[in-house]
Automatic annotation (TrEMBL), chains A, B:
Organism superkingdom: Bacteria
Gene3D superfamilies with a match to the protein in the record: Creatinase/methionine aminopeptidase superfamily
Protein name: Peptidase
Pfam families reported in the protein's UniProt record: Creatinase_N, Peptidase_M24
Organism: Streptomyces brasiliensis
Region (Disordered): 158-180
Length: 337, 337
């Protein structure tokens, strides 16, 4: 809805009809948390929808517009609302829109990419500032909060997803929730964060080592994940199969004996949601287009010891335009902090 | 699911069966963001569910258990998943569980109330500290972030909902999203925040005036909303109709000529979600029980000028036990800051 209409007031519904489009809101957008501003070509219907059920109200509006069928997003609509729509508008044939809108969203225009680019700059800034501060002795939770505050200070709408800070044995785990564990000398520290800017969400992940010099196993593991991540990045091109990008990165880790316990995907699309199509995974079907922003984020986690994740957001571009555009430019050297 | 099983790993599903209960997860809970720890009486099934569809996997498990019917929560389940369940388990009769679990959750036990009480203490602390700092010149967004950081510093899992800070003409609006407007002399400042503690969410809202002395209209409006809020609080008792509590508060504002633009409810239940049953609203059906925690949060917003909201979380208790227990104890005097 945010994509098609420019705004997403809480609990509202978008009705696209043959003649005119409607944004149906239970109360004026000023009264409710909203995101963005509605497109001026939309009629804004404010309906005192009973129980706030704007979906049912929209179905009523469709009937009033002489529609004979209504395609709904069955993967979002609940069974209870579907039934309510069917009973209020029994003359409407209810069909499934499927993921048509998600498919439209995969390729971004330059305005969308520019929001992602600014978001990535903000995330780079927040991360850079953190690296200049004292880290030993601070908790994962505290560092994550600090990063989120900096994101907003630099102009983000907010974090793109819950910031992940993982130390020591937690490091390298995807989506690790920060705990009260403190940073210690010799730890791997892996950080994954992102900014939301005008609704668009990006992602960056880096792994550092705490102390003057990393141990041999840390250097080895880092080099390996770095090589896998580079292979994934280099495989990004218009026409490349999703699974081939995944395989390029995964193969490097597989051949080093880390086949087990690898995360199910190497990367994914980003945009208005942090996790959208495409999925870069072994069984994914389809090929990349130009102007598709994706993450490349392989990682290895050794239970009890920790691990490494390196995560960038890039935009697929043809070779003639210089190949994939890296949005998250923080260094990927192994820094000892 | 979190209520019945003690844990809510992302994307998991709870299957309650005649003989044994199952928590069905797509991957081990350690790998995925989770909340709480599963109850020991549950069997944890880790399923490599295709597409992560644990609901479909749970239906398969129900068939394996010789079940002949399965009640699902139709107000949460999507049409697409419902169809997938039906096709994988065509011998199961699919029924609607309705809001049975939500109804179970309305009355809290003392352990749940104790989590809410601790959450309220944390919110009181965070708010108290903010009031001791310099406010003039700071933006709504900055103050909201500062409050959220303090919540976590004092031991909250996180904010219970997006913290609302509203200054000047924004003040008094329910759910106002913080902007870059700065606090000015003479402003009303209304703040609404809450802590999540062990999954339980509370809420407190206060309105202050910035400067040495409030204007007459500010004192008048404040006294009015305070009187409405007190009337609402005093109406809380086991057996009181939801609509009567709402009316007690609403009547005060109505008779002062503020009938228009009043928010649709005076308060609501809190617990694992910030907004749960009951709703204290004009058309709500039902009566309060003892040990139901609710908010009482009337407010008036004058377009262009601002307004006042006062919001407490209380637990309904019989008169013999001292009447409603106030969890959020920050003063409700009109403070000039």
């Amino acid at each position: 809805m945010r994509y098609l209409s420019g705004a997403a007031p809480q609990g509202s519904v978008l009705l696209l009809s043959r003649h005119e489009d409607f944004l149906v809101c239970a109360s004026p957008p000023d009264d409710r948390p909203s995101e963005g501003r509605p497109d001026e070509s939309l009629t804004l219907h404010v309906l005192p929808a009973p129980g706030g059920d704007t979906a049912v109200a929209a179905a009523g509006l469709a009937v009033a517009q002489d529609a004979d069928s209504l395609a709904v997003e069955e993967h979002h609509l609940t069974v209870a609302r579907h039934r309510a729509i069917g009973s209020v508008a029994s003359q409407l044939r209810l069909a499934d829109l499927g993921c048509a809108v998600e498919q439209l969203r995969v390729v971004k225009d330059e305005e969308e990419i520019s929001c992602l680019r600014i978001g990535a700059e903000i995330a780079d800034q927040a991360l850079g500032e953190l690296l200049e501060s004292i880290l030993v002795g601070r908790t994962e939770r505290h560092l994550a909060l600090e990063l989120e505050r900096r994101l907003v200070d630099h102009g983000a709408d907010g974090p793109a997803f819950p910031t992940s800070v993982a130390t020591g044995p937690h490091s390298g785990r995807r989506g690790h929730r920060p705990t009260d564990r403190r940073v210690e000398e010799g730890d791997f520290l892996s950080v994954c964060l992102g900014a939301t800017y005008r609704g668009y969400r990006c992602e960056i992940g880096r792994t550092f080592v705490i102390g003057t010099s990393p141990a041999d196993w840390q250097v080895e593991l880092y080099d390996l994940v770095f090589a896998a991540q580079r292979a994934g990045r280099e495989a990004l091109a218009p026409g490349a199969a999703f699974r081939d990008v995944d395989r390029a990165a995964r193969h490097v880790l597989d051949s080093a004996g880390h086949a087990e316990g690898l995360q199910p995907l190497t990367g994914h699309g980003v945009g208005l949601e942090i996790d959208e199509d495409p999925q870069l995974a072994p069984a994914a079907m389809g090929k990349l287009d130009a102007c598709v922003p994706v993450t490349v984020e392989p990682g290895v986690h050794l239970p009890g010891r920790g691990g490494v994740r390196i995560d960038d957001t890039l935009v697929v571009r043809p070779e003639a335009d210089g190949g994939p555009e890296l949005l998250t430019i923080t260094t990927k050297e192994l820094l000892a902090l």
